Amino acid sequence: MAEGKEDPAVFSSTALPSDPRLLATVTNAYLGTRVYRDIFHVNGVYNGAVGDTHRADIPSPVNVRMVTAPDTENLAEIFTLNTRTGTFSHVLQLTDYTATQQIYAHRSLVHLMAFSITIRRLVHTTRPITVQLQTPFVPKSQDLDLNRGPDFQGAHYIYGKTLVPEVEGGPRPMVHMLWTPVPQALTLRGEERERSWEFLTAVAESEEEAKRSYSDGLAFVAAGALHSSHAHAWAALWRDSCVDLDGPLPLRQAIYGCLYYLLSAVPPRGNPGFLFHGISPGGLSNGTRGEDYWGHVFWDQDTWMFPNILLFYPEAARAILEYRIRTLEGALRNAQEQGYKGAKFPWESAATGREVCPEEIYGAQEIHVTGDVLMAFEQYYRTTQDQKLFREEGGWRLVDAVARYWCSRMVWSEEEQCYHIKDVMPPDEYHYRVDNSAYTNAVAQRSLIFAADLARDVFISVPEEWVDCAKKIKVPFDAEKKYHPEYDGYSPGEPVKQADVVLLGFPLMHPMSSEVRRNDLEMYEPVTELSGPAMTWSMFAVGWLELKEVQRAQSQLRKCFSNITEPFKIWVENSDGSGAVNFLTGMGGFLQAVIFGYTGFRITRSSLCFHPAFPDDIKELSITGISYVGNKLKFTITKEKMRIEVTECPLDPPASPLEAVLEESGQRFPLHEGQSISFPAVAGWIQRLPAE
């Protein structure tokens, strides 16, 4: 789908950004770093107590850079992030040779980071060629008590525990690291035309795993297959999860960049060999003390990133939910300490599920996160029909605990004859200690409706209180102006920090007319902070696409581009460059505008709806790898036509046979593996084929 010849998935530059925060990241969900950074982070390894807990800094042996003398003549230098292969490269090109460094976090051998350097002679000489290396590595950490162990298969070895547990008496994770020693320079001898050197770093929470991973890496190096196996794993990832379009190059580049950074954050298919600890706003590459929210997990994961991951990789989405299940005990304690029943998920979560936000007000009041967590569980259940997670693996216990929390958090208003939720901070953090946040109350209502639905599906009796609270909770609505006030007492025109009420339409799909949906968008668009968090405008775009106001949607989506930095398409949280970097939250919102906005995809109780709409400068949209009840689907959409193909329909376990149904005509199209169907680009849905 090329507009011109430039590959939208490859980002190159002759210079690095002046702000090191904007360097490309290489991560694989277990290990992550920014290139040329002196530290890296490990999934789930935090140091510090409660509000001080942060990702533990581990010294990085891959922080190596090729350098030349300042007066080097005829030097051409290029830095490239190839998102297709998950590889960052640096090329020095001189008259008589090229030197290429490749840096990557191995996609399938997740305990490995590696870099290689290749020197290739360009002219027929026998002069030795030497490339100097900048190697500032020092095996020390402010967060771990590191000790030196004996060398292993030519690698140096250190190990140690984090210094301070998250909660008193809690675990202090162990880190074991082996790495290939790096010399100050590499030399291509006179008789050699080309040579490559490989440098490995293996990291694990046990000595045995670290050594096994290092040995595996050496075996791949000996077979000449270390980087190719990594690139192959990325190729498989892209085959199963790709969004592309025939349209403007900057939009295509933005999509590839967002997908690369988000897919880098999810565990590989199959048994990844580690417990996944969720996704923080800046990913594994960030999160040291005082940076990118210290690597904590927020609603950003469940609301902004999760829906994209779910549609492509239900297995990775399940790993996110399993993280929430494992931290349920902490959430139960949070609710108990605040005097409520059930489970209150923390505004900021790390390893235990206890509240680790450094500022008490957010943990106490921004309680919508509990509903956001449950909405992710609901979307997963509707899309996969995976009852095992709920029946056997702790999912139901979590759903039940969240429902009980919301019921205990509500108070009955005799005056209004409905339930209120008081003293909260809505997503719009400019306001706090408000009553009846529209978003908070609507997501609480949705939690209770889902809990009751799931209970019926798994043959558990539904507490009457859940039904009553869901039916009678107040969601503020101004009948005269026909819009949703953000909370009780909100005055039209008051500034808003970020997307809030507009989220009622999507992703909450709170029942409302098109007129009310439009009024909400028009009421809040002009008063929302222009330089606020990056995900905001994506949700306005989705709203306008829902109403088929395509140009208005595009004007909102274009605002996102001020959050994308060059040359490696790293997002910043705020358009002035402040806040978190590698801001996966903003990327997740942007991808939802494409994946859910342009297509009209909506996950409902029994179907995956579609109703496409996109602007004139997009001729065709192709989305490969959409997962629905076990099937893999490819959608190809133009303004006139939609084509759907079932690319996978597994037999073990058997996927549900599907059909497409058009809303207006009622036409039905059975979907069979390896076949495609086409019909006009109108509203409809995918559903399981009814049993005969």
TrEMBL record:
GO terms for biological process: carbohydrate metabolic process. Coiled coil: none annotated. It holds the Pfam family Glyco_hydro_65m. It comes from the Eukaryota. Residues 602-647 form the Glycoside hydrolase family 65 C-terminal domain. Residues 286-491 form the Glycoside hydrolase family 65 central catalytic domain. Its EC number is 3.2.1.107. Keywords: Glycosidase, Hydrolase. GO terms for molecular function: protein-glucosylgalactosylhydroxylysine glucosidase activity. InterPro entries: 6-hairpin_glycosidase_sf, 6hp_glycosidase-like_sf, Glyco_hydro_65_C, Glyco_hydro_65_M. GO terms for cellular component: cytosol. It catalyses: (5R)-5-O-[alpha-D-glucosyl-(1->2)-beta-D-galactosyl]-5-hydroxy-L-lysyl-[collagen] + H2O = (5R)-5-O-(beta-D-galactosyl)-5-hydroxy-L-lysyl-[collagen] + D-glucose. Belongs to the glycosyl hydrolase 65 family. Catalyzes the hydrolysis of glucose from the disaccharide unit linked to hydroxylysine residues of collagen and collagen-like proteins. This is Protein-glucosylgalactosylhydroxylysine glucosidase. It comes from Heliornis fulica (sungrebe). The lineage of its organism: Eukaryota, Metazoa, Chordata, Craniata, Vertebrata. The gene is Pgghg.
